[in-house]
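Chapter review: from sequence to fold.
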Amino acid sequence: MPYATRVEEDSADAARLPVAEFAFPGPLRDRLVDAILRSDKVSTTSLAAEYELGEPMPEPGQRFAVVDSAGRRVAVIEVTDVAVVALGAVDLAHCIDEGEGYTSVAAWREAHEAFWRAEDVRAELGERLGALDDATPVVLERFRLVAS
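The token string follows.
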């Protein structure tokens, strides 16, 4: 793995934290986790429809264990802000803070819509996916790296 440090697996606190999964296991997750470990990625975006599956909305102050593609807990993040906005209202600062190299909202949106339309997401969300347009509700989450 490309990470030099990891959360201590025997840490009782880290072991009790809920898990944060970024994308699906594989190359994209590995890139996102690597960006989190470098503190380049301090924000993320989810479809609000994902929370209709029963997972509670994150709240500021809440901590999560970030897992890599192998399911290992490699970092702890703390949520600093959560907002539900329309997809068309996402600004460039948020896109840049996702740490994936976006230099425009259009590039960020194209990549995210492609991910959300991918087979894995469609299989998970089914009918909840709906249309992706400017009015689609998305969850903007900001966080900070607490431990790695």
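Two observations follow directly from the output. The CA atoms of residues 58 and 82 lie 7 Å apart. Confidence is low (pLDDT under 50) at residues 1-10.
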